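Forwarding the complex inputs:
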Amino acid sequence: MTPEERAAACVAHMLAEDDASRALGMTVEATAPGSARVSLDVTRAMANGFGICHGGIIFTLADSAFAFACNTYDELSVAAAASIEFLKSANVGDRLTATAQERQRGKRSSVYDVSVTNAAGEEVAVFRGRSASLGRPLLPRGS
Amino acid sequence: MTPEERAAACVAHMLAEDDASRALGMTVEATAPGSARVSLDVTRAMANGFGICHGGIIFTLADSAFAFACNTYDELSVAAAASIEFLKSANVGDRLTATAQERQRGKRSSVYDVSVTNAAGEEVAVFRGRSASLGRPLLPRGS
Amino acid sequence: MTPEERAAACVAHMLAEDDASRALGMTVEATAPGSARVSLDVTRAMANGFGICHGGIIFTLADSAFAFACNTYDELSVAAAASIEFLKSANVGDRLTATAQERQRGKRSSVYDVSVTNAAGEEVAVFRGRSASLGRPLLPRGS
Amino acid sequence: MTPEERAAACVAHMLAEDDASRALGMTVEATAPGSARVSLDVTRAMANGFGICHGGIIFTLADSAFAFACNTYDELSVAAAASIEFLKSANVGDRLTATAQERQRGKRSSVYDVSVTNAAGEEVAVFRGRSASLGRPLLPRGS
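Prediction (whole assembly, four chains):
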């Protein structure tokens, strides 16, 4: 497998099991070693008490993009911490895209930046996540 | 209204509109000025690619508790930023409780701490959020 | 004044008063509206208990670059919050450069990203800061 | 050695080498397994461009308390990341105290909370740090 094929295989494997991301209607649009781009449409069921997209949904989209990106090397990694700045509200009907990009790759811990934009290209949130590598492969043997 | 009654009225008003929190099955267990406690049961639809509760769901629970707590004074407030440390994984079937407590209340910006625990009382995540006040009441006139 | 001249005047005004930045030997290398680049040499007095540059010094350098950058519009702004990821240790003798860039400019609150690099161009830390505008000019009248 | 003696020995060992903390006049007031309390007096040389204590100094005090606290088990640990919320400004002449407390201790990564207060007991900043254990002792053999 090329690194690009491995990245795609890892994300496909995760997505197949990821009920939460699929339940929210996320679509993986692109993958590469250390990066992933994921989209979702904001539905009425994602609105908070103010009628705008719940910040938790924006975080979840960014967190999924981060999780996919940090697992593209076939080294099982989990989120240790994350922070998010909410820059602009998102509305029901908006299509949001989260682009996760590796900022630093360490042996045991790595840092990823995620930008969440709307269809007009405006930045809705910026997210930074730290992953911890568990030191074993993600893909089942024989994949 | 007493401050406690106002806090309860604000949270009830928000929850009635908060499709996202209700869609996830969140229950508001307690409110007071500057604080809120919210629970949810982790369902299979909340599992991520590793079969454990998606970090975004844990964040969303904490973020809802934060949003309720920072709106208990009937001053409309929104989340500006938040950070989360994931301390322990949560499993399908776990009941998670997020307790949000005001750390500092400013005129325009406030800080809240949220602790997310499981039924055994173990801390699953710690969350810190910063809210921005919009300078107008939350409750409709006449409430 | 052009925006570039205003940015330079604001930073010069701040630096003249900023004993802490000058005591650490910081040099402002560049300014523009919404950005600033600041350097310092890591001295023995900046080493921590492990003989490497104290993380607080790296933070302080980044925080100064952030403070300069968010005050380049002649609107008095202060730091409300910041986070830092330490990516690589810095040694006594290293020259560190912090480059602060506006990520989003709001009416009352703005977000800045800062990258701290060593002379080899390696990223030592990434920093994200949120500023609060106090709603009055930075420069004294007549400037 | 009791755990309390070990904590004190670790912090004494670090402080002896920690030129940065000593250069700023920090005093270690208390140590225990997983915690440390450190103070400093804000001097004119710590003032920023607005004549108040530079946020970097407040961070550095909190970061030192965190570094001491996370090394009290004689397991060498370094800061991986930290975030700070600035709640109240500190002035030249103020005595600041940072109290670091373990929030969660993991095998490879731990979380600490630090509160920075002034002499009136007002909270100046809250800090949260994540440490990484390097898997070897802090104290030299024979200590």
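The longest strand of chain D covers residues 95-105.
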